[in-house]
Amino acid sequence: MMFEIENVSPDRDLRVAIVAARFNRFIVDELLAGARDALARHEVNPNGCALLWVPGAFELPVMAERLAASGRFDAIVALGAVVRGGTPHFDYVAGECAAGLNRVALDHGLPVSFGVLTTDTVEQALERASTSEGNKGFDVTVTALEMAQTMRELDRRLADPSG
Ligand code: INI
Question: What mean pLDDT value characterizes the chain?
Fold first, then answer.
């Protein structure tokens, strides 16, 4: 085996941009609290991080695209809540949001974490955004950090295979 990279521990200088959708803000605020907690627990330097608000989940991809194109960030975390009950166009908003975020990730080779809840009810969304039952904002931020660090170490290994 040439090399293996697993169980990386995120550098404190990783630069993370969070994009948060204001729609269903009371839910997204909980996701954001989880995301902030994940950054703080990994002692990520806040000076390299940014938080951008957009109106709804549909707007997350275009802002993520702008952030990715800036070259200033190692990972992007997208947060939102799309609830089927209140959303006749649920499938368009949720589907385009997911597809758009994934496109940004692939176009830029940048980790873009999908922290957008897509649930049938507000109750289900709140369960996934709570602190006691596990917080999706926390989880996807940990994922973003792992991906950014693994990419960083991969670049290092490929630049210096002996090191
Ligand atoms: N945006 C959300 O983030 N969640 C929703 O549940 C939602 N609903 O219910 O419609 C929603 N709609 C707004 C959408 O994201 C755009 O902001 C809007 O269509 C303007 O482009």
Answer: 95
pLDDT per residue over 3-40, tens digit each?
Answer: 999 999 999 999 999 999 999 999 999 999 999 999 99
Distance 63 CA to ligand 1 centre (A): 15
Atom of ligand 1 nearest to the CA of 54: 17
Q: Which of 29, 32, 54, 87 to mutate to test the pocket of ligand 1 (most atoms within 8 A of CB)?
A: 87
Q: Residues with Cβ < 8 Å from 61, sequence gap 6 or more?
A: 78, 96, 97, 99, 100, 101, 103, 104
